[in-house]
Amino acid sequence: MSETSETTLASDADLFGSTEFSVTTDKADYAPGETAIITASGVDVGGSLTFEVDHISDPGPDGIYGTSDDITTDLGGSGHESWTIVDGGEGDLDGIANGVIVTEWYVDPDDSLNETFLLTASDGADTAYASFTDGASYNLDQWRNGSDTAHLPDDGDE
Predict the structure, then answer these.
(1) What is the CA radius of gyration of the chain?
(2) Is the N or C terminus of the chain more exposed, i.e. has fewer CB atoms within 10 Å?
């Protein structure tokens, strides 16, 4: 009788999470003038990606924003030109050739308020998509009423 043993090796995906090519932003919604932090993962170590952010006019036939069938439009604002970043190179905010590229995009108030954007990241063979919005952000705390100090309990004014 012979004994056999099986050895199971863990994959990178098992050890480090998914290695599927994807792109995300640090927030789903930005105020005009903020900077979106963009992270692409599953990139070839030392590889390059081309990023672009465009306005979405319609989510396309699937009805889902941030997918390949989104219909984009040009509203004429600045900052919608594509840019290329090399993993670990200039413009990769983590500065490490590690299969993750971190970059940023300025949410220019010139054409961004109340818009939905399509973010694409492409290595020439594959493309990843995400969407985010630029909604108005208001802080109304300055108009909040303070404590009622004019009426004290048992002062007969209730």
Answers:
(1) 24
(2) N
According to DSSP, the residues that pair with 99 across neighbouring strands are none
pTM exceeding the 0.90 threshold for the entire prediction = no
Answer yes or no: are the C-beta atoms of 88 and 96 closer than 8 Å: yes
Q: Can you tell me which residue has the tokens 């056999």?
A: 4
Give the pair of three-digit tokens for residue 134: 């630029």
N-terminal to C-terminal alpha carbon distance within the chain: 93
Count CA atoms closer than 13 A to 74's CA, side-chain side.
6
Q: Where are the alpha helices (H) located in the chain, listed in sequence order?
A: 12-16
Instruction: Tell me the pLDDT tens digit for each residue of 70-107.
Output: 999 999 888 899 999 999 999 999 999 999 999 999 99
Supply the DSSP symbol for 111: T
